[in-house]
Amino acid sequence: xYTLEILSGVxxxxxxxxxxxxxMEDNKITIILNCTQLFDFPDIAKIQKxxxxxxxxxxxxxxxxxxxxNKNKILSFIHDNIDNHNILINCYDGKSISPFLIALYIAxxxxxxxxxxxxxxxxxxxxxxxxxxxxxxxNM
Length: 140
Fold this sequence. Notes:
single chain, alpha/beta, five-stranded mixed sheet
């Protein structure tokens, strides 16, 4: 089971974390963005559950298209909820799709140089691997 608090109140994790009601309770998770097609949400009524049906196929054109179509909606949702909710963004391994969404969020809502975002995330965990290159979404 892999989890990491990547921003204050925003956690990333792998698919196994969905089985841990203790993690959800201990970290007061109130929103889950499940970035998998296959794994079920925990059976906890008070958590808002949103599925982002990405595949486990790295660099999938279908996933890239889905993300491009929904990027603003996803990032706005995170931005609108980040101050009042603890959010879990999970994907298959917890180290690719989830941190990439955080990288997009940081690129969109901060003044941090987009070329530095990945390096900053690596200071949290050196095994993180962004799903796509940020340059596919931003001029760098």
